[in-house]
Design brief:
641 residues, alpha+beta, Rhopdopsin 7-helix transmembrane proteins, four-stranded antiparallel β-sheet, 19 helices, 8 strands, elongated, transmembrane, receptor, G protein-coupled receptor activity, DUF716
């Protein structure tokens, strides 16, 4: 009963609005704006009254649960949205009826009031106009536009200027020329102002200047009928069911009409305007770009050396984590290569419209206000980047799981077929996620030619960043952020457990000579943090809605994560005894080869010999320096080799 009563109250409010509006037509009093405001206040009061009734029911009324409250509030909000659209159409119908009584009842003053009403209605949001166009079965928008065009040549030589609508009327006499020039000047504000339009009855041609936004030249010949021009500050009245607007900039609409019942063959139109096109900006902070390229280059070199070292020395080191580390480094290496050489969209190099396959001879209504050039190769790169980054995080999680079993559960040997299972998970699960995501995006887009932009960005070949109002339904959230967040949370938990129970645990049974130094504990902790991807939590700090803070964290994130491959090389290759031993042999070999070098001619400068001597004298001491980086024997064969 409550819903029925509320609905009836809203219907009664709308009927009352129509009655008061009709009275206004007869009394020539402009109360429509106050009526709309009053009706909205009634709607708001009704909504709050319903909430109060639900939360504090009178004695004898049944109790409401939470679901009832949510349903009532949602239903009432839907009513408010529906009737807000009806109010727009009511206002438009008011203007239409005003012009329909133009010769019988109303004066020019009432018609100007109607222009003011239309201008005020154009301040409503775009969504309200779209909703009103959907429920408008009488095509009120088109009828209103036609009436305003007819009204534009009935004002004499006067001008009506409102913030969102400007009308210029022109009368023609026997002494008038054969053409009329209408000019619209550029404005610095977001609304139309007096003096922004001008008329020239004696112009022979177009003569734009630097401040001219548009000029229309009507060549009327012998036709001396009056003509009129209408300027709309935005395009909200021009709703299309075949055209989708994706940009949020305001578009002015200008129309011109001559008072003639039949088409006059002597009338022609010339026009000049400054067309505005928008090209996507592909520029990024140069310093971040340089830092990313340097970090990725170092990571690529470090990862390649680490993979070769892990494979060649596997039997010598006798470790059980080689396959996990090699898989992690391989996925990270491929991701870095794709990032450096493929993330830039090749559409950036399109310099002119001739590069875009658009036929200008086809006079067809475009389906949207932007042209997105298809680039399947960029979509493939985005999918590969998506896949290999998910693979990297998956192997981070598998590495954490393996170390948990080895160090905390002390499970040696690992379960049978463990390597096979983690390989299927590490390389297979991300492939399923990426495949399902691309398939779902393609299926939901229907026959859209630009479906790939629902999956990737146009600026770079990476996943599309969703808008705030569509974030929950975006593939970026469910196919990347959610799984990565789950992996990072579990990795951080395991990292804390291993750090507390293994790396920094004090064993009182060890003598002072066998205790691990603080430096080695720190290096071991860093080694675990790097392969667990802990530094990726900095990416969440980049979501802070503050430009200064976001830039700072962007540099920190770039520094730590683009050099992740280099960190792995230093902590998992350079620190091992095998690498240090082989590096020492290489250095000794180089030293002996220098010793066998024949003496230089006597004419060689003495300072060159001194530099060579100093360099050779330093080489034997490098072996001692490598010993300072040796990892602890306790963890080398399980995690840090």
């Amino acid at each position: 009963m409550l819903d029925v009563f509320v609905h009836q109250l809203l219907v009664f409010t709308t009927i009352l609005a129509g009655l008061v509006t009709f009275i206004e037509f007869l009394t020539k009093n402009n109360v429509l704006l106050e009526l709309l405001r009053s009706s909205l206040i009634i709607l708001q009061g009704t909504w709050f009254w319903q909430v109060a009734f639900v939360l504090y029911p009178p004695s004898g009324s049944p109790e409401w649960n939470l679901s009832d409250i949510e349903n009532k509030m949602f239903l009432t909000m839907c009513f408010c949205w529906h009737y807000a659209s009806i109010f727009v159409i009511t206002g438009l119908n008011y203007a239409l009826i005003t012009w329909s009584f133009e010769k019988e009842v109303l004066s020019n003053k009432a018609k100007r009031v109607a222009i003011t009403t239309v201008s005020q209605i154009l301040d409503a949001s775009e969504d309200v106009f779209q909703r009103a166009a959907e429920i408008d079965n009488e095509d009120s928008f088109s009828t209103l536009i036609e009436q305003m065009e007819s009204y534009s040549y009935s004002l004499g030589d006067e001008t009506v200027v409102e913030p969102n609508v400007a009308i210029q009327s022109v009368t023609r006499g026997s002494d008038s020329g054969s053409s009329v020039l209408f000019s619209v000047q550029k404005g610095s504000s977001g609304s139309l102002v007096s003096g922004g339009t001008s008329i020239n009855k004696t112009a022979d041609g177009l003569n734009p200047d630097g401040q001219t936004e548009l000029q229309i030249l009507l060549n009327t010949g012998e036709n001396k009928n009056p003509c009129g021009f209408v300027v709309y500050q935005n395009n909200k009245l021009f709703q299309s069911k075949a055209f989708t607007a994706t940009s949020d900039f305001s578009q002015k609409i200008v129309s011109g009409k001559i008072n003639a019942k039949d088409q006059d063959p002597d009338v022609s139109v010339q026009m000049v305007f400054n067309p505005t096109t928008f090209k996507k900006d592909y520029k990024y902070p140069e310093s971040l770009d340089i830092l990313s390229n340097i970090g990725c280059a170092l990571s690529i070199a470090g990862l390649a050396l680490t993979i070769m070292f892990q494979i060649v020395t596997r039997k010598i080191r006798k470790t059980s984590v080689t396959w996990v580390l090699v898989s992690l480094c391989t996925s990270m290496l491929i991701f870095n290569l794709l990032f450096v050489f493929g993330i830039e969209n090749s559409n950036k190099n399109l310099v002119s419209d001739s590069d875009i396959k658009v036929n200008p001879d086809n006079n067809e209504i475009p389906v949207r206000d932007t042209i997105d050039t298809p680039n399947p190769s960029c979509t493939v790169i985005a999918a590969l980047l998506h896949y290999f980054l998910l693979v990297t995080f998956t192997w981070n999680g598998l590495n954490a799981t393996q170390l948990y079993f080895l160090l905390i559960r002390t499970m040696k040997p690992l379960p049978h077929h463990f390597i096979l299972v983690i390989s299927l998970v590490g390389w297979g699960v991300p492939a399923i996620v990426v495949g399902v995501t691309v398939g779902a995006v393609y299926a939901q887009s229907g026959n859209k030619s630009n479906w790939e932009l629902d999956y990737r960005q146009e600026e770079i070949c990476w996943l599309a960043i969703p808008k705030s109002d569509n974030f929950v339904k975006s593939p970026f959230l469910w196919s990347f952020i959610v799984p990565v967040t789950i992996i990072l949370i579990s990795n951080i938990a395991i990292f804390i457990i291993i750090t507390v129970k293994v790396l920094w645990k004090n064993n009182q049974n060890l003598t002072s000579t066998k205790k691990v130094s603080s430096l080695k504990k720190i290096l071991s902790t860093l080694s675990i943090a790097v392969v667990f991807g802990v530094t990726w939590i900095l990416a969440y700090a980049m979501l802070i809605n503050n430009d200064d803070v976001r830039i700072v964290f962007s540099y920190i994130f770039c520094l730590f994560n683009t050099t992740q491959g280099l960190q792995i090389f230093i902590l998992y290759t350079v620190r091992t005894k095998v690498f240090q031993s082989e590096a020492s042999k290489v250095l000794k070999s180089l030293s002996s080869s220098f010793d066998r070098v024949k003496p230089l001619p006597s004419m060689t400068p003495l300072r060159l010999r001194v530099r060579m001597y100093n360099m050779l004298r330093v080489i034997p001491s490098l072996h001692e320096r490598f010993r300072l980086l040796e990892p602890s024997g306790m963890t080398e064969e399980t995690s840090l080799s």
